[in-house]
Amino acid sequence: MDIRDEIALVTGANRGIGLAFVTELRRRGVKKVYAAARRPETLPELPGVVPLELDVTDAASVARAASTAADTTLLVNNAGVSTFARLTDGPEEDIRREMETNYFGPLRTVRAFAPVLAAGGGGAVLNVLSVMAWTAYEHSNSYGASKAAAWALTNGVRYELAGQGTQVTALAMAGVDTDMMAGIEDEKSAPEAIVRAALDGLEAGALEVLADERTARWKARLGEDPALLYPHLAAARTGGGAA
């Protein structure tokens, strides 16, 4: 899709990757951006940007947003949360919170905005995922489970919305320099670089954008030996470093 003159809605738009989406969409000529957040008063004032109250865990809030932003032609599902919970002994309420935000959140927005996009000629959906959908570590595995569910959701709605001409693109990435990863020492991409790759892929019609080399490497391992997905376990056995 050519995003110039489109009207975009970005969830979780008040910081990090969401704010980078808002800024880059405006730079690329999008006519209007709805910057959606639970607390719209935290959003910066930018030309062509309309603050919008939206809590993706609240069905009524999502329905109100779809009614208010009924001219949306590009939906960017970016809102997400990580509690760093473990699956085996993490608090169940943390795991449920991640699923409510990271899986049921985009499910609600897609269901609410699908008729809106159809009325505008089809439009597009961009779902922000994570490399954690395909791998596992000592921590954050409930986050990974929610992102794996969101990946399956993305693949499913791509089929279901094809008949109305809606493009559905997945965006996956590894570490990004945001508040969510502030306490983690890791290789991190700039949010702006991730967003540029995402929008380049969207405009090229890509079904899936692997925004950095690490993500592309992990995705490729899905079709190889499953043991490659757990290099840290192999390292623990041999005393070597992780791949």
UniProtKB/TrEMBL annotation:
Q: What is this protein called?
A: SDR family oxidoreductase
Pfam families attached to this UniProt entry: adh_short (PF00106)
Entry's family note = Belongs to the short-chain dehydrogenases/reductases (SDR) family.
Q: Which PANTHER family match?
A: NADPH-DEPENDENT 1-ACYLDIHYDROXYACETONE PHOSPHATE REDUCTASE
- Please name the SUPFAM superfamilies in this protein's record: NAD(P)-binding Rossmann-fold domains (SSF51735)
Keywords (alphabetical) are:
Oxidoreductase
- What is the native source organism of this protein? Streptomyces koyangensis
Superkingdom classification of source? Bacteria
Q: What is the lineage of its organism?
A: Bacteria, Bacillati, Actinomycetota, Actinomycetes, Kitasatosporales
| InterPro entries assigned to the protein according to its UniProt record, in alphabetical order | NAD(P)-bd_dom_sf (IPR036291), Sc_DH/Rdtase_CS (IPR020904), SDR_fam (IPR002347)
Keyword Kinase listed: no
